Amino acid sequence: MRGYTAKDYRSGVKPVWCPGCGDYGILNALYQAFAQLQLPPEEVAIISGIGCSSRLPGYVKTYGFNSIHGRALPVAQGVKLARPETTVVAVAGDGDGLAIGAGHFPHAARRNIDLTYIMLDNGIYGMTKGQVSPTTGSDRRTKTTPYGIVEDPINPVKLALSYGVTFIARGFSAQVKQAVDLIIQAIRHPGFAFIQMLSPCVTFVGREQFDIIRSLAVDLPPDHDPTSLEKAWEVSNERDRISLGVIYRTESLPFEQRLRRIGELAKRGGDHHFDAALRPYMVAS
Amino acid sequence: MRGYTAKDYRSGVKPVWCPGCGDYGILNALYQAFAQLQLPPEEVAIISGIGCSSRLPGYVKTYGFNSIHGRALPVAQGVKLARPETTVVAVAGDGDGLAIGAGHFPHAARRNIDLTYIMLDNGIYGMTKGQVSPTTGSDRRTKTTPYGIVEDPINPVKLALSYGVTFIARGFSAQVKQAVDLIIQAIRHPGFAFIQMLSPCVTFVGREQFDIIRSLAVDLPPDHDPTSLEKAWEVSNERDRISLGVIYRTESLPFEQRLRRIGELAKRGGDHHFDAALRPYMVAS
Amino acid sequence: MSEKRSDVTIAIVGSGGEGVVSAGEILLRAAAQDGLFGMMVKSYGPQIRGGESLAQVRLQETPVLSQGDALDALVVLSWENFFRFSTEIVVRKGGSIFHDSDERVPEDLPFPPDTRFLAVPFLQTAKRVAGSALTKNIVALGFLATWFGLPPGGFQKEIAERFAGKGEPVVTANLKSFEAGMALAEAHASRVRHRWSGVAHAPKLILTGNEAISLGALFAGVRFFAGYPITPASEIMEWMARELPKVDGVFVQAEDEIAALTMVIGASFGGAKAMTATSGPGLSLMTEAMGLAAMAELPIVIVDVQRGGPSTGIPTKTSQADLLHTVFGGHGNLPRIVLAPVDVADAIHIIVHAFYLAEKYQLPVLVLSDQFLGQRLEVIRPVDFQALSDQVIDRIRPSEEELIAYRRFKITETGVSPITMPGMKGGMYTAAGIEHDEMGRPTSDADIHEKMTWKRWKKLQTVEQREANLLWHDGDADARVGIMTWGSTKGVVEEAVSRLRREGFKLATLVPRRLVPLPVAPIQAFLDRLQALLVVELSTGQFHTFLNSQLRLPDTVRLCQRAGAAPFTVGEIVNAIKEVHAA
Amino acid sequence: MSEKRSDVTIAIVGSGGEGVVSAGEILLRAAAQDGLFGMMVKSYGPQIRGGESLAQVRLQETPVLSQGDALDALVVLSWENFFRFSTEIVVRKGGSIFHDSDERVPEDLPFPPDTRFLAVPFLQTAKRVAGSALTKNIVALGFLATWFGLPPGGFQKEIAERFAGKGEPVVTANLKSFEAGMALAEAHASRVRHRWSGVAHAPKLILTGNEAISLGALFAGVRFFAGYPITPASEIMEWMARELPKVDGVFVQAEDEIAALTMVIGASFGGAKAMTATSGPGLSLMTEAMGLAAMAELPIVIVDVQRGGPSTGIPTKTSQADLLHTVFGGHGNLPRIVLAPVDVADAIHIIVHAFYLAEKYQLPVLVLSDQFLGQRLEVIRPVDFQALSDQVIDRIRPSEEELIAYRRFKITETGVSPITMPGMKGGMYTAAGIEHDEMGRPTSDADIHEKMTWKRWKKLQTVEQREANLLWHDGDADARVGIMTWGSTKGVVEEAVSRLRREGFKLATLVPRRLVPLPVAPIQAFLDRLQALLVVELSTGQFHTFLNSQLRLPDTVRLCQRAGAAPFTVGEIVNAIKEVHAA
Lengths: 285, 285, 583, 583
Ligand SMILES: Cc1ncc(C[n+]2csc(CCOP(=O)(O)OP(=O)(O)O)c2C)c(N)n1
Ligand SMILES: Cc1ncc(C[n+]2csc(CCOP(=O)(O)OP(=O)(O)O)c2C)c(N)n1
Ligand code: SF4
Ligand code: SF4
Ligand SMILES: [Mg+2]
Ligand SMILES: [Mg+2]
Fold this sequence. Notes:
The complex is a heterotetramer, with two copies of chain A (285 residues) and two copies of chain C (583 residues). With 285 residues, chain A is of the alpha/beta class.
């Protein structure tokens, strides 16, 4: 059998993305990661919310679900729990995942469901044409912050860390090779894996977003110990640079296995067909 | 003029709470804190969501709003922004604030609006009679976890820290004096202040919840430096004990002042009555 | 003295701590073992625990239709708590009050003049035989058993089972208390002997509406449940938490209702039969996601156990005021099916049918229950699950051929298109809430939007044409006065109508159990025969508004409506029907 | 050749990067300065940026009612992009196509046989005079100005202003391009001279529906806006972000729509006039909180700029399918007011009225706009703000006396109770979504629930009895055929009806601008005079369903309905009316 190549995952639908958009890089990285992992396309489901970034599933020839704004994570969890054999990748924008969907992130994390959550972070609401997002840098003007931004930006890696996410990484759309590697590691990680993918919006932030990130981005040093919570905390507090790579990883039982334990406990009692559930309600007289 | 005493803040409505419920202690602490601060009752608004804990506003003779499940924070922010002179206290349960309302917490934090957010944490859904909550300890059985809990519990202090909350404290219903002090400090803090108040549910967790907390609770040592992020991080990682006191505080411009800056920028252009807004749409011909 | 009985309504009032509800439950279960049918409703005060509580039990030789209007007997464990319910408690003329002899009878009680007051030493007896006030309720049960001629066996079995977990001494203390209670009645000066006739000893089921929904869903094959606690629907999720793991199903307590429903939608996409259950506030929160299921054409079932609204309203009390939201709520042109069971037995049928329709038509199906139905305990005839198994079906999958250039949203005659799921080779597609073409590709083309909108809408027509009408109908063919109601109010109406028809009134009743799509033709035929229609509902007029939107009502329409909280009584409906007749 | 003109419709099609929309805007603004009325609608492809775009401008000597069905002229900057809109673009018989002479004209174009094709060197001219392709659109503008007899002054002023920020050389390049374009038309062989007559030089306003809503809200005194971005409503929040800080108002971009609306509710509790604006998905999410405002009796205004649904649907295209959700959505008995402006000028009136009703009646007021209305740019007569100032009112506050034992939810004849706010001594109370008594204390008592439910409901009756009916009515008193529609579809219907009446048809049109509470009596009187009714709407039948739920419609009812995306054309309505007449 011939193996899958990156182009086997192309759906043929032409992206609506602007020329030069950072999301193309992530999409390519995803094709390559799938190919390297030799994932049968029908065994993959990519689940997104709404936004430029959330259009991604339509461009990949796997199962996909472009759901509603902010709900990539709960939909993805539903898919994974209903059919655990599926490789589930959740995709969200920074607005999608950190504004309207902010409440789902800590809960997906504490369930440690075995899925990969990729946040395409452009620091703006792209799809709605340029309003401030939770990760927009404080110095920017946007359509809804014509006089400057009053809120402090959110640091998604720090959030993930405090939520107990068991795999945390940061990638950059312009470093596709690294992004491929991070995605592969995240998919292989048994449990909930989060990647913040910096993915510039050339239209509503501008091309310079690439340069700014490039000027601040550094790969994590080879001696970075991703199993150290302290080190990860330090990285999450960096302000002078943007570290790329696997920031943190730890082992914890994935949800699916925890559920199995629950199932065993539940079944201790004996038979479990429908009649057993009906019995307590029967009155013989 | 005679000053206000604690009982001036009693509304006279009889609490629906179970005898022995931890929430009584927090209610008392609130009365005392208000009295010590000599807050005119009409200048205070207590805003809650839904839950046993959220019944609190009705028991205090100030303005109050027992809103809907999970929305204490946005309602409270609306009140404060509409009438900044008001002392606004938001009250939520652990389910209210960390499950359905989880998405509002990081955003209230990053706005740093000058309000006090008290979470009455009993580690259970009290009002709905005993389902698992985000802070329920992993070893418990509840009505919805008859075979044990599969999710890891959430640590609200850790969350607050990663959200950049500018005042973070932890109190305990059984230590009313300390609770009074924490509430006073939180109200005085210019910006968003968060207090996790451990407040046992004697009915659905049981009286032993008091004892368990008592056996683990320690006051923060006098040399704890609440301005140190590192120290606060350490406290938030404690597993063998429960530290009580002010865990973290820092200074940052409150939202109301940031808005004032915005206002000044906006008004640079000149006159700002309605006619100025209308002018760009007028065509003389 | 001796009285012949085929219908008795008894209430027990006291504080939660006095075991009022346990006593009611034991009474109902014991009577069921003895061949009786019955219904129990409960009412609580605002206190989370230990506040006042009321259990009302009606026992009958035939299936029970309503909670019973007026009490034959009221057991008062403490008068203080009685007053919290004084507007809810009605004692029939000549009824009896059994009150604890240790408490002074208050003045100005709202009872009819000929009410019999019997002071009974419940507390003293409990203390005497069990050494504790705790078994006071069980003493009262013993008293009631003997008074109303119910054999002790069922009670003793129930008591033994209920307290088994607390150890032998507790069981013994309770059994002794029960017997002492019996003796009190036996010995009572004004004892009336009640005799039952025609009790049919046949197998029965005893369960609440919430349990019926849960059990029926399991039968229908539900394998995924995500929910968020809310009164009065929480029992369904608690049931699922306990039972689903036994059949390798998945239960998740979600972080909120939006997560619950979107997880359910994800699970359905993943191939599972999936559902959630909630009440008004949760349902409102689910509105957006409901549209996603309609647009992505995924089968899901949502149960709404209605309570008083709007907003948080009255969580512990009933209402029928989510109707318009379920039939019309949601932005855009959102096809959905709405079903409404009329009693506990029907809840089983309706939830099975809900899964059947959801899977067959790939859209959201809403099931409208309410607190009155969901939390009442009924003794009913056994349900013929065998007959229901035809309705346990799976969604239609594409053929090999259809998979060659698979069109997930193929426009078909019925509106339904074959669906795949992850793992199916060649069936890959992207589901979306965004408008899409037959392949599932996003589009903003007006023509495609037009076609796809009507494709989705078509399914409702197909249901109306091809599926059972689910109309409950009863009464005189030549009746000129008709009554329409829906949901849990049906039993009360049925009883009122039966009573009046026995008195010679000509009446006909129609109760639609499927509200969307409404079976318009047969209902219009029914309406066209009428001169006057009475519309009965617990809302400010939502059912009336809904009927108006779909049908041509007779010139004379009368409304029997209340905001809710308390369910209707038979007497209220009787009066309303008499007024229509007089008009 | 020379043609007399009082109505011209011109479209420009190209890619977003070719400045299609800017050209359309400049054209409309310049014409407005020259005394003409006008309307511009835009259409985009799915690309976020740089995709195909279409700007359609209609100019008239009298106020414009619709976007114009068929084009007098179409400017094609690039044919490739034309094909994306081929179903939307209709050129009238004898119309003209001005296409860039550098592009080959494709075969099989969907134009009438007598269409005139004129190749014009837009691109070459731009390159020649400005040294860049960028001013191609401005060359086209110059061409159009001369061709259609529009004086250059307005254009030049607009061009100068628009490019001022980009520096002197850019302004010059564009002005030169404009003049070169004029010269191209001047010199063109087949030039037709257009002459305008009766242009009334009077002050006008030029703005979109979203701007009208924003401006009107500011006039009404809005001081708090919280929102979440969503197409096609975002312009309202962006406007507020810019303008509110200037008047010491507060603007917040919330984390989601639930936060937005609950912040607005908090702000209203705090005493501010507060609003939000959203579209379908956001509105669905706000459903639960809407009930809170109704229950806590707090004035709030929600603007819904409808788009294609359900679910995410088609964000960039119009629809009228949120109607049933706004009038009936939300669990429980939820009183709300729903208003629907019919055009840009009306949007100002309606939003001012919305704040008036919200403050006066203390409940949620929904304003239903849509993409067609919200994003179209209209040149209209000035609005008489002076006359509107009566409606700028504040909520009723308790008197000194009423503050003595203050009952926040006092049952009154109108249903409205005086309200306090933080800072008012003696006015302290707890607002709640939980059912409560007159003092605001929580209760689960059925009687109080009944009273308070009807108290809140009463406000709708009061509005119906005491407030203006907001009916737009036009036509023949003796007409037997009537037309009803609502919202932004009104203009198209009005134009169709006028056209047919000029042809001798007898017709009458009724458009309710307040949908809840619907002014039933005058509408029923209108209907009772009809033999046939045509109901026009962009949905699968929601307006028809709604009318049925409230009124008795004539025996003959015809439906003119589409799912949406593209607004109706006058021609569609004309045909539908003719069919009704024939029936
Ligand atoms: C409930 C709801 N609210 C708002 C929107 C409008 N909306 C679409 S995408 C989006 C945000 C896009 O930003 P982000 O998530 O960062 O994705 P990006 O486009 O930048 O990739 C918003 C607000 C919506 N579709 N649904
Ligand atoms: C939208 C919505 N969902 C669910 C509920 C039901 N509900 C009421 S209180 C509550 C949780 C209570 O737990 P918590 O917030 O911890 O407060 P506690 O009662 O423990 O103080 C829930 C789920 C509701 N009122 N509204
Ligand atoms: S708007 Fe920004 S994020 Fe969206 S496609 Fe364009 S460049 Fe990418
Ligand atoms: S249920 Fe628990 S939290 Fe609620 S009042 Fe009782 S003890 Fe307190
Ligand atoms: Mg973004
Ligand atoms: Mg709790």
